[in-house]
Amino acid sequence: MSDTPSTGFSMIHPTSSEGQVPSPRHLSLTHPVVAKRISFYKSGDPQFGGVRVVVNPRSFKSFDALLDNLSRKVPLPFGVRNISTPRGRHSITRLEELEDGESYLCSHGRKVQPVDLDKARRRPRPWLSSRAISTHAPPHSIAVAAPGMPRAPRRLVVFRNGDPKTRRAVLLSRKVTQSFEAFLQHLTEVMQRPVVKLYAPDGRRVLSLQAVILGSGAVVAAGREPFKPGNYDIQKYLLPARLPGISHRVYPKGNAKSESRKSSNWKVFIITSDLPDAGTSSQIYIILYGQHRSSAPIYLYGTDGARFQDGHEDIFTITVGDIGRLFKIRIGHTNSGQSPSWHCKEIQLHNMDSGKQFYVPVQRWLARDQEDGEICREFPLLSRGQPVLPVTIYEVNVATGELWNAGTTANVYISIHGEKGDTGSRQLFRSKSAFNFLRGQTDTFFLEAVHLGNLCHDGLGPGNGWFLDDVVIKDPTTNYEYTFFCHRWLDQGEDDCKIVRELYARDNSIFSASRYHVYTFPEKLCFMMTRERQKLELKRKETWAAESWKFTKGNTLQFYNKLTGGFVRLHPDGRVDATGDKTDKYGVFDVIFNKGNTCIFQSHEMRHLSLALDNGIVTGMVSGEATTELRVLYQPNRCALLESALVPGHTVAFDRQGKIADESSTGYANLSKEFVIFVKGVFLNSAVVLLATSLCQALCLQPDGSCTGVGSQSEKSYWRVHKISPGICMFESVKNAQMYLRIKDGRCDGTGTGDMSCHFKIKKNLENASISLESTKSPGLFVGLQSDGQAKPMVYTKDENVCFYPQVIQFGRENPMGMYATPSQEEEKIHESKIQKKILTESEARSPSTSSTAKEVRHFQNSETLLSVDEWKVLVLTGNTGAQANVTLWVYGDAGVTGPISLRKDSSEQLFLPGQEDEFQVELRSIGNIYKIRIGHDGTSGQPDWNLQKVTMQHTKSKKILDFATNAWLSQIQADGDDVCELPVVKGGQAVFPLVRYQVDVYTGQLKHAETESEIFLCLFGERGDSGLRLLHKSNMPVKFQRGQIDKFQVAAVSLGKLQKVLLRCEASDKSQYWYCEKVIVREPGTTAEYVFTCQRWLPFMSQGIIHSEIELHLQEMQINHQPKIQEEANDGDWKVTIVTGDLENAGTTATVFLYVYGETKCSGPIILGSGKHQLFNPNTADIFKINLKDIGEIYKIRIGHDNTGMNPRWYLEEVILENIATYERFCLPVDSWIAENENDGDLWKEIPIMGAKKAPLPVVLYEIRIYTGTMPGAETESNVFINLIGTRGDSGKRRLHHSKNNEIKFRRGQVDIFSIKAVSLGKLKKVLVSHDGTGPGNGWFLGSIVVKSEDEDSSEEVLFPCNRWLDEYQDDGKTQRELLAESSRSAGGQTGSVIS
Predict the structure, then answer these.
(1) Of 223, 527, 808, 1373, which one is least surrounded by beta carbons within 10 A?
(2) pLDDT digits over 1072-1097, tens only?
């Protein structure tokens, strides 16, 4: 950054005979680091001349950062994803493996093509070649100046380093400012020489596009050489611009041109003191500030000997553009050479044109090791009739944020701008603290400058990562304080990657203590309160954003009070206290209502009561009352206040004894209103969690296997929970499967394999709802964070370095195999019995001979009940061929699955020898009755074949034995070619479930390059679990997965029941090995069942910048966003459906989309088109599907909608196109509407009529629906209510009554609610289906009647549907759905059968 946006020009003419031009010197470095200079070339491209990169710990914090940097420089289709040695034999995966002075090859895949490095090093002229610019790098947008401030210059003057006479004017167009690398390439072509670095005219390095744009309008272009000082004059190339706020003078139109080009000559006399070592070897510069603008830095040098020696006077003649009346100067040096310190005695300025003279007595050191350490000084100049500006020492308080790795060791510079100019760029290096810019620390600096008037903004720029909270500048001259809020990163690897920011003072952050002298202290106190209040509000918003997930409807919570040391309890009689323990059943609450931060907390034990604030008293009241609505107000300490939504200001409060504090409570020290919120069920099995380390950071697995606490709170930081036993879990990276968090050998990383070193005991911290993870293998060691955020084993303290704040992304299940949540144990038993009965019926139907086996299974499942955490002895008998590979076990029960379990011991080489039986001890969590196991090995040994004879499991307490008889080969060569096998439990000599060999047909598409040599994996999912991920190894074809080919495989697994989905994975090393799969068909021998899973997609595929190697395929057809390649002939009734999503921002959806098609004969639907979670329905895309509409007759309407699931369910649907594949009949149905709860009427469905061959389309009718809730006690409901209107021309579909037109709260007792839905005309209404989902306080609803009014072009109708019954599972007949028949209708003519009241 330059000192100011200066546009004055200057020239220098040495007039003294003393001295000569000093030789260029390097700027001093304060923190030398070890650097490696390495050349990188492009795989297989000898024409690419290579790039040279300096690698050190500051420039690249990780290996991924180096790959990202090279991706912008080396032109590869998918960026640089692999670095290898010149011959391609060894891949580089860590920065430490790179050697200084060596050359390496870059590629986007594992395959590397060597190049002739000697040929590649003979580079062409740089301006004739192109610098590679990555298409993946986000463009840097041009910064826009704040209102009232001068805009960034659109034209730029570029000087050649060391040669100010060679200069070019460059227009900063969007084309050349796409990225900093592109801009350097453009300058290389303009300057006809390599441009590698840019400098400001005063010699400071320019590191980004933002620094170029916000600079003075001039840069110095250099190659690899250091900066060479010179007079870089920009006046001839840029139009005049004044300093911020210096002058508002408007020159007369007639002489504006001559005035702008006016210049003056000055003679400058500089006397160096005669003190010892007063002279300097550094380069001296001077800047003149005038009323209109400032000059550029003018370097003072000559050609006749050394300058600025002890006791010498040096004279220079300079030419300066029209800067207006001179009011101050800045003198400084570059701190270069062997003895840069300088003591200046005085400076004299003579205007050779007007005769004006200025005398400046300096008598100051400009030295890092003298006085205040400054190497530049400012001095005011006295003009007749003008007041002299005072020299002010500004106090600068810089607050570093509290995020992990927020501190910096880089040099930090500041430039303060005011009404009267700026301070120039000053380094903040000497503070009251021993170490500057540490995390959470406020550093105080003092900066001397001529008074700037009212401050307007400042700019900051460090050299590496730094999180800045704010800057407070105190002006002792006016006693003003200015606050500049930032609260952002200055880091090339964080936020928007900018390391320079302009901060503006807000109106309410400027405080004057001198306006009213009487009230100085109260005003200052008020200002401090305002500033702190702003920071407090910001912290509260961030805390709510981090904690709001806890209050999602359906979550179960506990409220802990730190003062009482107990949990809030709601007793059956309505009493409330805060003395419960964490196991108290009355201290658990369900979130049954959530709107913003307003919630209703219903007792988990007594569902008719909720926490309430009634006239300021905490009590329990009937759920749904207005007093039960509480507003959650989070504090920066992660504690929450519970305030009445009905009466703001009334909060839930307790005294030290845990009793309710009423309005008479006066001692705030003995009163507590803050609560720590805990969510139940955070660490259930298979849950996906995020371990937050701060409000916006999380524990993240790095590509090199290390863990850091500075990761973003995104998918990269998700961990899957594997519950080992109560309170003990493993954490597997979701992004990198099979990599577990662990503590081992004094390190904490994410390279665990699931052994004991990955087991952690979860310690809950009641003070802040955080957790700490203690290693069970190394008790006393916890997962901790160093100051830079790197994970490291630590001893437990109460500091935050061992605290993590869990956030649940996806809740796990106590019963992973269960399909439904049941309200009681009795219902759960009934439900389980039904499932078992269904399974056994299916087994008997398949094979009558297995009826006796089924009885045994029934007896086995009903009689064997295991402990919640079981210890088992596993005996593995090896046949005549052993293996020394890593063996893994999965155990499946009817209530869950445990695995992978690694079967290993200290002496692994002695395991699984021929004829040997090996014994292992394993722990299984509550998985119910075991019915199968899966066992396999990874084939890593020299002997890849393993003959498994038998597996036996024995319960250590009950001594029950489970036999898994086998005599199978686990080998990719022998038998089925699979190194994994599944074994059912054998009871009474027969398996409880049969072993099925599923026939899997994999169709490779006909598209060009559809074939692959990559390994393909498949996993089958059914009603009874999954088959595990299997390598499709042994095909019926000699070469697998060729274009247009059908490969047949067998997957042996214990019967999965009805198949639901399959998972495909393609491990492609580069794009040439991508695979296009048409579909997968699975057949079960002995049955006619055939499961078709349509894919029509390339694997891997890219979505939102992430490459996905696997995809789930469901039984419903889910097509890709491209024209489907229909290989077989179309069947009768096949239609092609094209769904066009709009190109608005966030137009795509994450929900599952459904389609109904109505014909004259019948309706086809619901047809599940797919989910946005599977990369469908993205903005500005057309998704194509094939559906069958056989025998539905002539189509007259469709209905399309979604289930409102996922993170962003709202959807903008532009058009639906239906095309008959056989007849080419085509309907284009424009929609152009949002389908979302918060848009239009909140309806999640749209109906569109279709014009027939000889018929006009039916009209779309607005149906007004009046719902009369009864007047009986408890008649109201907060459940979601649904209605389906049925007439002579079909139905409206099940619609949620979402927005009441006349009431804010729906379905209150005795209330009439008015809703409206749009549907294609239904003809004469016959009946309605009304229902609710039973959610909310109370499951019941007493419905009086429904009146439906409709108007179309010809007539209007009003129909009454009486009910007068409960929709309640505990009232009347227990039904929550009613079919209501039309009793009467009133036409436009006024005739009616009865009166509707």
Answers:
(1) 1373
(2) 888 888 889 999 887 777 888 888 78
- CA dist., res. 1147 & res. 141, Å (int): 24
- 3-state class (DSSP) for residue 120: helix
8 A C-beta contact, residue 648 and residue 630: no
* Mean pLDDT of the region 718-732: 89
- Residue-averaged pLDDT of the chain: 78
Q: How far is CA 770 from the centre of its chain?
A: 21
Chain-centre distance of CA 697, in angstroms?
A: 10
- Residues 1364-1382: what's their mean pLDDT? 85
In which region does residue 1170 sit, left (phi positive, over 0), alpha (psi from -120 to 50) or beta (all else)? Answer: left
| Confidence band of 1332 (pLDDT split at 50, 70, 90) | confident
In contact, 1167 and 1156? CB cutoff 8 Å? yes
Other CB atoms closer than 10 Å to residue 648's CB: what's the count?
9
* DSSP assignment letter at 60: -
Number of Cβ within a 10 Å radius of residue 440: 13
How far apart (Å, rounded) are the C-alpha atoms in residues 1111 and 1117?
A: 14
The one-letter code for the residue type at 253 is K
> Which one-letter amino acid corresponds to residue 1276?
E
The Cα–Cα gap between 789 and 489 comes to 15
* Closest by CA position to 710, among listed 695, 692, 698: 698
| Distance separating alpha carbons of residues 855 and 843, to the nearest angstrom | 11
Name residue, tokens 């034995």. 961
Closest CA to 322 of 213, 245, 403, 249: 249
Tell me the mean pLDDT in the region 492-515.
58
Helix axes 825-846, 851-863, angle to 10 degrees: 160
Q: Is the pLDDT of residue 330 over 80?
A: yes
Residue type at 1346 in one-letter notation: I
Nearest Cα to Cα of residue 1269 among 1330, 1357, 1336: 1330
Residue with structure tokens 């913003």? 596
Token readout for 828 is 């759960």
How many whole angstroms separate alpha carbon 457 and alpha carbon 416?
A: 6
d(C-alpha 378, C-alpha 148), whole Å: 26
Report how far apart, in Å, the C-alpha atoms of 894 and of each of 45, 163, 828, 839, 845 are.
58, 81, 13, 11, 21
Bond from prior residue into 201 cis (ω within 30 degrees of 0): no
Residue among 987, 1021, 1024 at smallest CA distance from 896: 1024
3-state secondary structure of 502: strand
Contact 45, 70 (CB under 8 A): no
Tell the residue number behind the tokens 């990163």, with chain if given. 489
Distance separating alpha carbons of residues 413 and 422, to the nearest angstrom: 13
Could you read off the pLDDT of 10-24 as tens digits, one per residue?
A: 444 444 333 333 333
Task: Give the Cβ contact number of residue 528 at 10 Å.
Answer: 12
Q: What radius of gyration do the chain's Cα atoms show?
A: 38
Cis peptide before 1166 (omega within 30 of 0): yes
Residue showing tokens 């990955």: 758
Band of pLDDT at residue 348, cut at 50, 70 and 90: very high
Greatest alpha-carbon span in the chain: 120
Cis amide linkage into residue 1100, ω under 30° from 0:
yes
User: How would you write 361-390 as a 3-class SS string?
Assistant: EEEEEECCCCCCCCCEEEEECCCCCCCCCC
DSSP 135-202: TTSPPPPPP-PPTTSPPPPSEEEEEETTEEEEEEEEE--TTTTS-HHHHHHHHHHHHTS---EEE-TT
Q: Are 39 and 105 spatial neighbours (Cβ–Cβ below 8 Å)?
A: no
CA–CA separation, 662 vs 1226, rounded Å? 72
Q: How far apart are CA 762 and CA 689, in angstroms?
A: 14
